[in-house]
């Protein structure tokens, strides 16, 4: 499978995944974050500059993401680690467009406009289908 299929699976089937960073003392920190967009251009997500998550991303622009989808097709697991960068407000429209969680987390327009979008643009990952015993590694590096 091509890497964009895995990233799309993160968006469409998993949605909220566990994002891990390290804090200022080098300790691991994990939290659920919604995958706004996953496609051939990487993984896009957002957070408020007021959060510890944002501060950790600023200090060390790397993240590890783990998600699981369970359906009648079986259990699929994706892990991705890599480098992130801030992206412009134009990406917020795409991330917010069909995102069912946005209004719960950022209930008004001002809250939504205050968040920062990020792109995981370079990374490596592993896809597993637990019932079918499929394990596939993948890499990506989006230049633009």
Outline the structure in words.
The protein is of the alpha+beta class and 144 residues long. Helix content is 26%, strand content 48%. It is built from 5 helices and 8 strands; from the N terminus they run αββββαββαααββ. Strands 1, 2, 3, 4, 5, 6, 7 and 8 form an 8-stranded antiparallel sheet that branches. Strand 5 (62-71) and strand 6 form a beta hairpin. The longest helix is centred in the N-terminal third of the chain and has 12 residues, at 3-14. The radius of gyration is 15 Å and the shape is globular. The model has no long low-confidence stretch (mean pLDDT 88).
Kindly state the number of beta strands.
8
Q: Can you give the mean pLDDT?
A: 88
Structural class by sheet pairing and helices: alpha+beta
Helix content: 25-40%
Summarize the structure.
This protein is α+β, with helices and mostly antiparallel strands and 144 residues long. It has 5 helices and 8 strands, in the order H-E-E-E-E-H-E-E-H-H-H-E-E.
What is the topological layout?
Layout (H helix, E strand, L loop, with lengths): L2 H12 L1 E7 L5 E7 L2 E3 L2 E6 L4 H8 L2 E10 L2 E14 L2 H8 L4 H4 L3 H6 L1 E14 L4 E8 L3
Antiparallel strand pairs: 1-2, 1-5, 3-4, 4-7, 5-6, 6-7, 7-8
Descriptors for this entry?
144 residues, alpha+beta, 8-stranded antiparallel β-sheet, 5 helices, 8 strands, 26% helix
